[in-house]
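ok, trying the design again with the full structure, not the truncated one.
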């Protein structure tokens, strides 16, 4: 049996090989022989290029993240869902601006708590299953491991940002007669100057002793109000550890001066920074570009007049030229940032600065253009000067992808869209939005607040200038996946619907108002009701308006958890009118009773409209009660209502007597 099985296998293999060979010949004939003309052209081309050497390309080495990046490129943003960072739990996804803030803070708090446990208990997180390896998700060493007095222990304290411990270790090394390398000294000075000689706030949110001491000092001072954020804005103290260590150094190089000057500028010791720079020159040292950048940013704090500020900037730039220091992007951005505080002389000087950048072949960043727009927008109170500048900027930036090179880069899009909104430049607004979608420029929209500001301005511009169909298209595109509309944005949307006569969509907008958490805004709800009650519409539209009015009534009655509104005359009248137009007489009658409960007085027009509804219903009894209720409110329209009811309804003698008495008693005297 086994032998026969092997024979059958060989037979099948042999015949299958024959079939496969024939199939290959057929495919070759169809694919290659059938295209003989193209094949002949390729042969001739190869003969022509035979003289040229053949270059074999190098092997492409793909990174570990290449597959993930390729998969990410196939996924597009879903405009109907919430932002991706909130999709872990759809039930808890924020629907309003307040919920967005609460959710974001909760996420950040959770990250901080997780980081605290990972960093303080690393022995429980020794397994690493991530592929590829992600170092930032692994525990960091936050506790000191080296206790002996050595330079390695000093480096450990510097890397862990233990300012006080690093200074103590440095002093112990000096007392022991151990020399510290210049590189370690540089890093120590950088650490002290960055955190102003105080331990930074820990990642777990705990407050250091330095912060508590600084807070006590602030509270002892009288005559000035301090905010909680002032605890983080430390000021430069005289003869602090940075200055003490700097003075103890046997040799001071440019890097030491750079750390000291940048720390002084960062923490408010502007005059002292210029004095230290003078000491650097007296020591016959050459400054670096970071020193000059810091001094330029400090110019407005040491000079009051606009011309004096520019003269000092020119002097600093001339000294850079004399010392053969090449300026960088941050140098010119700092110059433009100072020019924003130089009044009317800034426009010409800003253009001169841009020409200098072009001459040095330094490509501007988005922060550069943000400073330019701010300069021209402030200087041009009227006219189109700043808009022309924005047009030139957008022509320069069209189709380009940017990366963050300056902290001010994230301000450009919001500033540019503000100019478009103020000057009602819709085309420029679209160009800015197209630039946001190029590459990963959307990352430069800034934090959640700046991103929300940008989209709020863009949407308000659309509501002012664009057709309602386009507005609604963008509304579905950016809400809520990119932006949570505030009450002002919703009011702009209501005005756009009114302008293009699309009030039939107001009920759907009310649902969005509820989902966005703005159903407790009285001015927004009142404007919505006013638009619905202003004109008469088709029966279908009036029916949808009445359903919406009943939902609004439930919000006012407090049956909705988030809403707590107070009834007013206008709101009561509009809801009642909408119910009457949809022939919901019973619900409208309850609204009249609500007038009485809330001590509100309805209008004469509302009672006339109510009488017309009673006429359509043919309810004589309700019409009589309506006239009696009008007399109870002491309305001037009561005689007219009584007369119309007597003439148009089939009444009993008792009802006629009641109406006749009301007509005669409340008849106005000429």
């Amino acid at each position: 049996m086994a032998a026969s099985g092997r024979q059958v296998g060989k037979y099948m293999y042999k015949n299958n090989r024959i079939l496969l060979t024939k199939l290959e010949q057929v495919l070759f004939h169809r694919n290659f022989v059938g295209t003989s003309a193209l094949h002949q052209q390729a042969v001739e081309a190869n003969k022509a290029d035979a003289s040229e050497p053949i270059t074999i390309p190098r092997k492409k080495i793909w990174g570990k993240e290449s597959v993930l990046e390729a998969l990410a490129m196939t996924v597009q943003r879903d405009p109907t869902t919430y932002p991706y960072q909130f999709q872990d739990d759809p039930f808890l996804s924020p629907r309003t601006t307040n919920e967005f803030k609460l959710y974001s803070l909760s996420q950040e708090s959770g990250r901080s708590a997780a980081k605290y446990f990972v960093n303080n208990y690393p022995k429980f997180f020794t397994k690493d299953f991530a592929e590829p390896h992600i170092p930032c998700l692994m525990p960091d060493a936050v506790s000191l491991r080296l206790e002996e007095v050595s330079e390695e222990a000093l480096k450990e304290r510097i890397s862990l940002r233990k300012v006080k411990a690093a200074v103590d270790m440095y002093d112990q090394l000096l007392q022991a007669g151990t020399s510290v390398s210049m590189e370690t000294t540089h890093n120590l000075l950088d650490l002290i100057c960055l955190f102003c000689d105080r331990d930074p706030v820990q990642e777990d949110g705990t407050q250091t002793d330095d912060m508590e001491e600084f807070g006590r000092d602030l509270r002892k001072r009288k005559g000035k109000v301090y905010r909680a954020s002032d605890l983080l804005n430390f000021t430069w103290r005289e003869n602090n550890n940075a200055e003490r260590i700097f003075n103890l150094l046997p040799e001071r190089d440019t890097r030491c001066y750079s750390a000291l000057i940048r720390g002084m500028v960062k923490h408010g010791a502007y005059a002292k920074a210029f004095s230290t720079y003078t000491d650097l020159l007296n020591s016959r040292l050459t400054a670096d570009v970071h020193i000059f950048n810091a001094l330029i940013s400090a110019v407005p704090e040491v000079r009051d007049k606009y011309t004096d500020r520019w003269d000092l900037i020119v002097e600093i730039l001339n000294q850079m030229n004399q010392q053969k220091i090449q300026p960088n992007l941050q140098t010119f951005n700092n110059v433009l940032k100072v020019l924003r505080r130089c009044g009317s002389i800034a426009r010409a000087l800003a253009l001169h600065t841009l020409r200098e950048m072009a001459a040095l072949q330094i490509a501007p960043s988005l922060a550069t253009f943000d400073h330019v727009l701010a300069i021209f927008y402030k200087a041009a109170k009227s006219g189109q000067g700043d808009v022309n500048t924005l047009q030139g900027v957008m022509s320069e930036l069209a189709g380009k992808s940017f990366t963050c090179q300056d902290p001010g880069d994230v301000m450009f899009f919001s500033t540019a869209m503000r100019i478009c909104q103020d000057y009602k430049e819709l085309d420029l607004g679209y160009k800015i939005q197209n630039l946001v979608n190029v590459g990963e420029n959307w990352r430069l929209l800034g934090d959640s607040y700046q991103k929300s500001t940008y989209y709020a301005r863009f949407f308000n511009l659309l509501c002012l200038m664009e057709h309602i169909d386009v507005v609604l298209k963008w509304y579905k595109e950016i809400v809520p996946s990119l932006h949570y509309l505030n009450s002002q944005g919703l009011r702009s949307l209501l005005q756009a619907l009114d302008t293009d006569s699309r009030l039939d969509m107001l009920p759907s907008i009310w649902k969005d108002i509820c989902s966005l958490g703005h159903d407790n805004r009285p001015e927004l709800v009142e404007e919505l009701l006013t638009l619905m009650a202003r004109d008469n519409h088709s029966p279908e539209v009036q029916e949808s308006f009445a359903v919406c009015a009943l939902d609004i009534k439930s919000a006012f009655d407090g049956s909705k958890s988030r809403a707590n509104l107070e009834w007013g005359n206008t709101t009561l009248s509009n809801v009642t009118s909408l119910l009457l137009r949809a022939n919901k007489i019973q619900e409208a009658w309850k609204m009249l009773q609500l007038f009485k409960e809330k001590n509100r007085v309805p209008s004469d027009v509302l009672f006339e409209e109510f009488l017309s509804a009673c006429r359509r219903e043919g309810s004589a009894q309700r019409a009589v009660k309506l006239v009696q209720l009008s007399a109870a409110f002491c309305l001037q329209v009561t005689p007219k209502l009584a007369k119309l009811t007597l003439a148009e309804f089939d009444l009993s003698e008792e009802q006629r007597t009641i109406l006749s008495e009301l007509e005669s008693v409340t008849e106005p005297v000429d």
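Keeping the full-length input from now on. The chain is about 65% helix and 0% strand.
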